[in-house]
């Protein structure tokens, strides 16, 4: 069973380092869950957020997801948040912009002492394309909701980015996104996974201190929180009608199956009929009571149950 | 973070995925020029996006994105048994698009495709070549709006226009006869300003009672608009077929379908109709299973259907009653030979 309460959906936030997580932990008042041995996990059941500090690299990310996201359901989301390198220098073609994309609207202010860059230090991006450098496989998380962030494409490598590495036309570089997507796919669909990346460097990550990472994340925590809250709202909205239907369906099917002595096949047919009845506005509980009052329920045996089901079906349809 | 219109989902085609292969194709450029605000993402193959694991058709459809690619391999398919061929022998269909901007809850595409995104194949010229090749040997009856609603996308894609030109050119080429069917629920009155009637093209307008449209055929034009479109089309010399297929059950179906027919008969000159098709809702069991999983609250797909050799349909008596009712009413206004009933078709 899912651990969270009622229709509160769970947002799983995955970071590689604690420094990336701290601002989010503070913002959402997350508490450390000491029951986890291998990873630091922080959560707040009331708001439906669980944050996992996975460690750096693909394997850590994959294991952390397997360890903590097993209970994920429809309406839950996985958000990979962290820093990345901005790897693409701006190329302005004769047409003005060699990308067709609106997402290619570039930050044109150069940083001091740097070439002109597509992404500035401290800028946050939502990734719409992720390529695993080592295999060349590419993944596309769905972007279904309005978000107000810039979008970018990210390359995931097995080691930290250095300037001699190929860029393959990508703007951003990290060490986890592709692994998070692949591992996440066991528990989430592409519409449930998001990748928020803050640019921390241009390929000299070794110079970035933990303090700087904390500051970069603090500078973006409001945007991240807004995004997470919106997912929370969406998840709730999408699931609300469904959970009510499933609750009624479960309790009515249980009672009627028992009293009609249903076989497995008949139980499935009854369940379908009840579902249709609920959707078409039939008061199933009242119908059941009516059949009790008329002495048609409970049935003596399977044979009587079959006839009773036919009668029930007639009244529902 | 809702968008400016206060909606929870991105507007349609906020993202366009473009296959490398068609990046420079004139149709790609033409389509993208009409979507200046879209984020355009380069992809290797349309299936990299369309066939991803774990997609949610229904959610994707609410923020439908566009995939532009090239179709290779089989370009024309022999008609499937669960569709009507109107007595035509060489019944083929082609998919120059996959999926639809309309959102009918009962649409089999929800069971057939892994994704709710719209795929448009921009290499229409290859499909045309394939049709020409077949026409050297035999006559052809070709459905081009099969796994989509082509006219609904005409403003953006212009594919109906291109097909009309192709069919017209073929008329004078000395090849075998080509008849094209364009099935639609679209009813854009401006259609007639930019298109012209071609003798080899039949428009199949699907009609449903307004209550069915409102309940299950989301984003589609009202019955009134569809009737008006069919009326104008015939006045302007287009060939029009009326499709009462799928008929959808609701408690007061008789009354609803009667009202619909009254509207049809009072406005459409039934003598000028090409023919009509009638059929109750039916769908393969694999598709329905998926449709039900994706739409747990949809009355139309959650109806307790009967499974008959892998095809789900309404109970036999109900099917018969609904279809017969409509056929009988239609017979009062149109010759029987012009009424095509699904049951008449061979599996
Ligand atoms: S108009 Fe046709 S193709 Fe489009 S959603 Fe409806 S049934 Fe499907």
TrEMBL record, chain A:
One of its GO terms (cellular component) is endospore-forming forespore. One of its GO terms (molecular function) is DNA photolyase activity. It comes from the Bacteria. SUPFAM superfamilies: Purine and uridine phosphorylases. One of its GO terms (biological process) is nucleoside metabolic process. PANTHER family: SPORE PHOTOPRODUCT LYASE, SPORE PHOTOPRODUCT LYASE-RELATED. This is Nucleoside phosphorylase domain-containing protein. It comes from Parablautia muri. The lineage of its organism: Bacteria, Bacillati, Bacillota, Clostridia, Lachnospirales.
From TrEMBL, chain B:
One of its GO terms (molecular function) is DNA photolyase activity. Gene3D superfamilies: 3.40.50.12110, 3.80.30.30. It comes from the Bacteria. Pfam families: SPL. InterPro entries: SPL. GO terms for cellular component: endospore-forming forespore. This is Radical SAM protein. It comes from Parablautia muri.
